[in-house]
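Inverse folding, one chain.
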């Protein structure tokens, strides 16, 4: 694949507000989509769903239901985001972090609310390579509300929405802290299919690097290592944030909900173990690729060397009898030409037999260079 057809991936420096800007100043990210709101009001009294509600309708929804979940897809309208923040009393510094879409996963405490950031991941083929894309999820947890902001539409929460619409008793009876756990658990569960796909890709690259190394193999190895680094950047700080939530007593999380957050934290620990294992394998793929290429080059050089070695004495014989001296042994003999050919054939066959006896060519050479049975181990 040429350079023009290959997607270039570069490290991006997060965009920041101009130096000296007042803290809490909101600025929409470049290229952000127009927001699309959806809200659920739920509790023992039932479930109510609103699509594209106004801030006034959100305030009325809070009055009618014990708990509210508001989801905002798109960060392109600062005024609307400020209105949502005013409706739920969201801290302006946290809202500023919502619009800074290069945040690492974290958990910040504010009066009567917690602000969490997580990264949602997708891994898909693009331009012949595999790329990992991330989407920032910002979550506010209050005593009776959960507010989530996403960069782009599309998430892992569809099953949770279906359960709310089906009025699942467990969701209706529990507080907003349990809903926030469900959202974070859906994010973490979404990491496992991505990591499984990357793991299968790593195994395929390992086999390809051993059996048929190409330049494209090296490019994909590099991309895979970048994907694993990006995934580690998403999971490692999320593990720390969940651990902090589980051990902080001031956050609005009920004691009966804390074991669920601890279970979610355990999942991130498991993810980190898998990521580190795949990173170790991916780190060795470059060495495997170079070693395989070196072995192939050695095979080519061995064949060329053997051919050259066979032709060296033949070249000497024909060179000797091609010097055109008048008085040379067997020069005028009737069978001299046939004898010369037989001599060269004897030398060639003798060298081939000698090389086979030494194990430089033939079955012994192939068996010695063959990789261990069973293939590479992941």
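Residues assigned per position:
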């Amino acid at each position: 694949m040429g350079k023009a057809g290959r997607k270039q991936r570069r490290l991006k420096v997060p965009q920041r507000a101009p130096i000296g800007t007042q803290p809490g100043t909101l600025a929409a990210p470049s290229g952000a989509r127009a927001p699309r709101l959806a809200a659920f009001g739920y509790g023992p009294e039932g479930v109510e769903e609103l699509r594209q509600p106004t801030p006034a309708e959100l305030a009325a929804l809070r009055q009618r239901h014990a708990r509210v979940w508001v989801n905002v897809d798109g960060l392109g309208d600062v005024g609307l985001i400020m209105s949502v923040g005013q409706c739920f009393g969201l801290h302006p510094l946290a809202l500023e972090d919502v619009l800074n879409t290069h945040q690492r996963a974290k958990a910040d405490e504010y009066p009567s609310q917690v602000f969490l950031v997580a990264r949602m991941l997708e891994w898909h083929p693009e331009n012949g390579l595999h790329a990992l894309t991330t989407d920032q999820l910002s979550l506010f947890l209050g005593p009776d509300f959960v507010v989530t902001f996403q960069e782009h539409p599309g998430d892992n929460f569809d099953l949770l929405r279906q359960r709310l619409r089906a009025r699942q008793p467990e969701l209706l009876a529990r507080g907003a802290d349990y809903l926030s756990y469900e959202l974070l658990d859906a994010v973490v569960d979404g990491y496992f299919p991505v990591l499984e796909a990357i793991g299968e890709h790593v195994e395929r690259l390992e086999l390809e690097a051993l059996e048929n190394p190409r330049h494209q193999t090296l490019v994909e190895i590099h991309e895979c290592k970048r994907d694993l680094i990006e995934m580690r950047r998403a999971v490692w700080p999320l593990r720390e944030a969940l651990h902090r939530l589980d051990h902080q007593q001031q956050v609005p999380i009920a004691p009966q909900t804390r074991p669920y957050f601890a279970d979610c934290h355990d999942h991130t620990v498991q993810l980190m173990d898998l990521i580190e294992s795949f990173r170790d394998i991916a780190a060795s793929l470059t060495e495997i690729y170079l070693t395989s290429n070196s072995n192939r080059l050695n095979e080519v050089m061995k064949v060329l060397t053997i051919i050259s070695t066979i032709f060296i004495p033949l070249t000497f014989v024909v060179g000797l009898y091609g010097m055109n001296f008048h008085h040379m042994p067997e020069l005028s003999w009737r069978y001299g030409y046939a004898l010369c050919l037989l001599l060269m054939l004897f030398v060639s066959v003798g060298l081939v037999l000698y090389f086979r006896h030494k194990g430089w060519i033939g079955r012994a050479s192939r068996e010695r260079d063959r990789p261990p049975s069973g293939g590479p181990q992941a």
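The radius of gyration is 34 Å. Residues 293-369 form a domain with the Methane Monooxygenase Hydroxylase; Chain G, domain 1 fold (CATH 1.20.58.340).
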